[in-house]
Amino acid sequence: MPTKIGMVSLGCPKNQVDAEMLLYTLREAGYELSEDPALADAVIINTCGFIESAKQEAIEETMEYIALKKEGRIKKIILTGCLAERYREEIREEMPEVDAVVGIGANKDIVSVVEKVMHDGKCCRFGEKCELPLEGGRILSTLPFYAYLKIAEGCDNRCSYCAIPNIRGPFRSRPMENLLAEAEGLAARGVRELVVVAQDPTKYGKDLYGEYKLAELLRNLAKIDGFRWIRVLYAYPEKITEELLDVIASEPKVVKYLDLPIQHCSRDILRAMRRPGSRAELEALVEHIREKIPGITLRTTLIAGFPGETEEQFEELCEFVKTVRFDRLGCFAYSQEEGTPAGSMEGQLDDGTKAERARIINEMQMQIMAEKNEEAVGKELLCVVEGYDRWGECFFGRSEADAPDIDGKIFFTAENKLAVGQFVKVRIEEPMDLDLIGVVTDEHPE
Q1: Helix, strand, coil abundance in the chain, percent, nearest 5
Q2: Whole-angstrom Cα distance, residue 117 to residue 443?
């Protein structure tokens, strides 16, 4: 009987792509993959370790599998991903039940790691961060109609609050010809929605070609038969070029959606974050994007309670949210991360203040989104079917305004049975909290 391997992948889509590559490597080596990790011989927990909440999730998940191991239901536990890379010694000391700790630079060695632990050996394997494999086969873990395309790895931005450069290493793009070949393979497998990801997609190509190449990449991806939607996650404001906006505006396959990781609007806070810009510059950029691409969905993330943030600066952030009225927004309480410049700054705010400020922003945004959902009533939206809700006796899916696993859902009824991955036209009839309810008007739109 071949050894059964289970996988639990936490965190962002980039980490999910790494997990898919690990699974492919193990299957090619003859291991059997278990759909239920709790029924496997060995479980790989591909962890996130970006901020405190992600670390806690990874720890809690690991403790659940440690309990299963003590019960004799699984034999081995292997930790990979960002938490494993970031807290090598701490995991070994505080979680002796973990059989292997594998840094991202040692993902290529996963087969020998599994072989070692299955023969009753402990294993800690690390390599240079730049040795993380960026090319290779994948076993897709998403719904079959969409997939992520990781175009680069690492980050050079060195924002003062962020541990990613220390965990993932410097920014490095993948060659365009490799990306196009992978994308063609995904399209041939039935992928209709391609989601382009990286820590900093807007910097794509700068290291290889001496200039930003995201716009050119999108144009080439749009030429591939099979894709209906091509989505870009994360566009750093200072790297958004006119060429990129032109491609989004003119190319039908590139969805009118951008996620701008702004974090704050106060010039002083942005400088402390080691980020460019100001409130006036950000508002002007958003206005320009909306003029250039009418109807675009803009998403952002904000950080409340950054060290030294005054009441006045927080109020400025609130006014910014009210003025700009982003379509999607998530505000997070600042997470003090060791090893980052902001982690040792003076003026750290208490957890209660940070949490309360994040709550205020999120509640403001919920009201804005509720108003925008009311405006959607009566409109017809192109949606992709994700499944059937037996409880609500209706189908559900997303429009191009909703990124997978990030944004909301649209629930809709139809006269006939719909297939997962099918595109349909839905007339919106009413909002439901932050989601929408509608009815299918065209089951086979052009």
Answers
A1: 40, 25, 35
A2: 51
3-class DSSP assignment, residue 435: strand
Task: Report the helix count and the strand count for the chain, using DSSP H and E.
Answer: 14, 19
Provide the 3-class DSSP secondary structure of residue 233.
Answer: coil
Interatomic CA distance for residues 379 and 390, integer angstroms:
25
For residue 115, what are the contacts with CB-CB under 8 A and spacing of at least 6? none
Q: Which of 70, 76, 83 is nearest to 10 (CA)?
A: 83
Work out the pLDDT band at 49, boundaries 50, 70, 90.
confident
Tokens 């144009």 belong to residue: 219
Closest CA to 215 of 202, 233, 226: 202
pLDDT, position 160: 96
pLDDT classification of 120: cutoffs 50, 70, 90: confident
DSSP state of 341: G
- Percentage of the chain beyond pLDDT 70 is 100
Judge if pTM exceeds 0.85: yes
User: Tokens 């909002």 map to which residue?
Assistant: 431
pLDDT at position 89, please?
A: 85
Amino acid in the structure at residue 352: G
Q: E strands within 290-418? A: 297-304, 328-333, 380-389, 394-399, 410-413
For CA atoms 426, 145, 10, 172, give the dihedral sign.
negative
What is the Cα–Cα distance from 362 to 356, expressed in whole angstroms? 10
Positive or negative torsion for Cα 338, 340, 346, 349: negative
CB 383 within 8 A of CB 419: no
CA 359 to chain centre: 22
b/e string for 290-318 if b means 16 or more Cβ within 10 A?
eeebeebbbbbbbbbbbbebeeebbebbb
Separation of alpha carbons 269 and 310, rounded Å: 10
Q: Residue length, the chain?
A: 446
pLDDT tens digit sequence for 170-199: 999 999 999 999 999 999 999 999 999 999
pLDDT digits (tens, 9 = 90+) for 1-48: 789 999 999 999 999 999 999 999 999 999 999 999 999 999 999 999
> Strand 76-80 and strand 42-47: pairing?
parallel
- By CB atoms closer than 10 A (0-12, 13-18, 19+), residue 330 is middle
Token pair of 409 as six digits:
């859902």
CB 173 within 8 A of CB 205: yes
| Residue 124 CB neighbour total at 10 angstroms | 18
